[in-house]
Amino acid sequence: MGSRSKNLSDLEPDPVLDPLSDGAIGARQATMGHRVFVAIKRAIVHGRLVPGHPVSEAELARQLGVSRQPVREAFIKLSDMGLVEIRPQRGTFIQKISRREVENARFLREAIEGAIARRAAQVATSETVRPLWNLVEEQAQCGDLPDQSRFLALDDALHHEIARMADCERGWRVIEDLKAQMDRVRYLSISSATPASTIVVQHRDLVQAIADASPDAAEAAMRHHLREMLTSLPIVIEHNADAFDA
Q: Where in this chain does the record put each HTH gntR-type domain (predicted)?
């Protein structure tokens, strides 16, 4: 069994939440509510808020230095995403990871991102491909036991850049909503199932296909990359059984 994440009772002096940030949008656009939402979502994805355990609205508000209202609003959004469960008269609980939801999200993501990779290859130029190579090399420099947060941030940045290259920002926004459950598994899989070097090799193959302006190869590489989850998921569940629905 993998090591368990911290319970809420263990928060001091090591807070479970990161400082408020702007997330993926600019500081001028980022509302306080959005920043609170991003901070709590990140803590769930990174396992610092333990699946199946209660979460205190008041405690999270205290850690973030905000009123309880934005935390309450964040809980509603996170409930819609399947990350928390709000139980009337009982409180809010971190949802365990649903294998079915992970597999459904992966299926949809493969369909969307396969098409995005195909379009990216159709419009690729040496100038637009350069940022992709830079991101892959940054990931490679993380090594086989990387800081998961940084490694996965670079992973997301690469996929986002491919969507931007394909002029499909809306597609990426759809993916961001879909992949919350997948992200929880991705975070666990680096330490227990999928070596970082495997992901880097898959990313290199994907970017090479885009650089070669080969739509068929780019789509196939993206689909192959996203199917890695099918291999890693049973291993992740075996090592982190308490984090998943029975």
A: 30-97
Residue for token digits 């308490």?
A: 242
Domains and CATH numbers, the chain: 8-94 (1.10.10.10), 99-243 (1.20.120.530)
Residue (of 45, 184, 169) closest to 112 by Cα position:
169
**Beta bridge partner(s), residue 86:** 92
The predicted pLDDT at position 1 comes to 40
Q: What is the pTM of this model?
A: 0.82
Q: List, for the chain, all residue ranges whose pLDDT scores fall below the cut of 70.
A: 1-30, 246
**Residue at token pair 């980022």:** 30
Separation of alpha carbons 211 and 240, rounded Å = 38
Q: Are strands 54-55 and 84-87 parallel, antiparallel or unpaired?
A: unpaired
Rg (CA), the chain: 18
Please report where in the chains the tokens 């409180």 appear, as a residue. 91
Q: Tokens for 134, please give them.
A: 């830079």
- What pLDDT is stored for residue 118 in this prediction? 99
Rounded to 5°, angle at Cα 240 from 221 and 100: 55
* pLDDT tens for each residue of 137-167: 999 999 777 788 899 999 999 999 999 999 9
